[in-house]
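Pasting two entries for a bug report.
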Amino acid sequence: MRDTLHLAVALDGLGWHPAAWRLSRAPATAPWSPRWWATLVGEAERAALDLVTLEDSLDLQSTRLDGPDGRIDQVRGRLDALLVAARIAPLTRHIGLVPTTSVTHTEPFHVSTAVATLDHVSGGRAGWRPRVSARRTEARHVGRRDIPPLDPARLDDPATLRLVGDLFAEAAEAVQVVRRLWDSWEDDAEIRDVETGRFVDRDKLHYVDFTGRWFSVKGPSIVPRPPQGQPVVAALAHSSVPYAFAAGHADVVFVTPTDAGHAAAIVTEVRAAEATVGRTDPPLRVLADLVVLLDGTSGAARDRRARLDALAGAEFVSDAAVFAGAPDELADLLAEWHEAGVDGFRLRPAVLPDDLTAITRALVPALRERGLFRAGYPGGTLRDLLGLPRPANRYAAVTA
């Protein structure tokens, strides 16, 4: 048996199924209330989950690959993930908070200060999921570049592949800038000596002097170094290009296997990507994504999935596998995939709060009975929870 697994939940609106709002016990207005997010994250924290992720995008949700679909029967619109995380942080004590932001259309200086602030506000529990924005609709909201429309039938077209490669290269640059800015203040840069009148040691603030293909940033940051030194960076990856991005720039990677054999193959590919990029940081924590519909019996879960699909007008498919069954069955599946090599799971509740409470109140106890999940929080930061050391400051090391 491998070590106990890491467990996260991905929160989005009223759930990951497009018809979730039709069956949810919560009112359709709930996702626009801060109390809703506090309730969900509080539920996850009571079960001692490692972290929650908060979805975000620069365009409205759509069933199309790019552009609005004109539908009025599905939830559209979100609150800003970083602001939601900042609102939740003072209401929680242990759970990691990982908002999503676009790195294609957001300046890394702004992201660095926002996530560093979240780490200070939360006492060292911040993470960040940089997201590549490949859709023309997102680009048109910002107006600084034009991205060609994505054709679902031609995703392997050389021009599309070049675009995706460039977007991930740009994302890599953005993460480099953000990480350098987090290090631009040494840990003891703030003196705060009232008698001498010295608040800061200017020699311990550093210019990052980054110049790349997409960004030129002087630094230093305006926010002191985060409590974790480097907040946890997470990436969602489905193929070789994002695997390489995660291997070079992230701490956690969310992957989307279809079964235990596929999970083992993905872990092998991720480890190969780490070797290719010459990773020197601790190995990526590999968490497998699953959309989950849980009920007392597998039959009841399948019936609920069928009802949701009927309300949506089509069978729900996702980039991640969809599981509909009983908590004990899901616990067995997670154990099998964990044995195949994944370090843990990011579960996407199909309907909120229903499937979240099934995770926290039925699945988690089943995992604990199998010795697969801890009974509580050991204390410390999100990095501590994930078994990641606090990194040394790159500029302090150079100075020394």
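Entry 2 (this is the one that rendered wrong in the viewer):
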Amino acid sequence: MQSLAAYLLERTVNSEDEKISLIAETRKHLSNWLKEKGVADPAGSSGEFKSISSSETGHYKRETAVSNDEILEQIRLEESPRNNQIFFTNVAFATSKTRFFVYITLSATTKTSIISPISIDARCPSILRDILRNGTQWKVGNYLVPHGDRVQIKGDEKGLELAHYLKSSTRIFPVVVVSEYEGEQIWRGLGRKIAHDLAGLAQIYEVDDKASWAITDVIEKQNSCYSGAIRLYWPSNGSSSVEQFHGTLWTPYKLLSNDKDGEAEARFRRQIRRRVMSVSALTILPPKEIHEIQSASARKRLTDLEGKASSTDDLVELAQSYLDDADTLRSENTELQEKLSLAITRAENAEAIAENISRPLQEFDTEAPTENGDDEQEEQDLSPPVPGEIRYYKKVRNTPSHDLLTHVADCKHTSWQAAHKAEKAKKGVEKLEGVSNWDVIHHCGTCKGGGMWRVKW
């Protein structure tokens, strides 16, 4: 089984009435979520349901434990939305004297044993967004959990504030910066979509040109994000300035050069979603209160059974309880061993990647995004075209007067067509390069997802 993502929400509880209210609200969200999945009786302890999204049969199980007036309730949902894949969503909430916790995990496995690559595309569970929308004080430790809304940063002053936040050694959530190119993002609404995908896990900022350059002044060009690029900044963990901005940079050049089918945006969203969610699966731990309530409840149940074991029937019930507990522990131990094995493998892979960072860039797959990436950002800083040179351009966005274009690599197609009436594209080339002395312009008849142009100067 592979762990895909983990989410943790915490709130301070100031009174017993507030705790009761939070329990009721969370149970309401759980019931609505189960109904959306196709469960007919969301109050039941277990059962099957016909999935609304895939028409496959799913299963759910609810468990409740109580200890010293503190409660733990868990629901484990199993569904199979795709061939040969089973997804598990575990939602738990727990209370303590002063805190209320919600802990959600996503995991997946295959129905059959087969050694073959599979594509697992996990999504943020809708119940998490519902819970986040219902309150503004959900935290992890002392830090507010991202609610799934992007923040728009405009102007020098706000840009400087964001730059200093990126440098902060205390932030615990990754930050995704989506920059603009002539007032537009590489794909319309991209920041909003990423914020929706990474609710509970990452903070998303949309920055205009002025804010981008203010950020650059503070953290330097090789660490910044501008001209339509998207950058993921992991928390620094108190790193030195050299390692402070580790993350990933995606430039329009890299993203649009591979957009031969018009699906580059969807692929990019899957990539950044997997990257952040997989890290959360390894780094977000369940609150200790969950284990404490489970253990105390189990011990109390066994003590009560031992005290009643005066007849043969009672002894049989006690023995069966021990057997059930042993089976549960064996199952949990197997699952934990699988997760530990996966974590060790990922750690070893991370170490190998860290060792390779110092190698020359050409040793790595050119399709992979760079980790500190100033070389990609430089791809936009081209000198003026020279006679006989051939350059390739991808349309980013329409404007009333011209097309917004960016430099891309050759798409390798052979269906180039003369572009006699492409006035807006020609104006876009002129605006991008600053000159209009080209020899001939051709349009690719195969590429989708916007215009692809070849210009011979």
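Dev reply: Rendering is fixed now. As a check, the viewer should reflect this: The chain has a mean pLDDT of 81.
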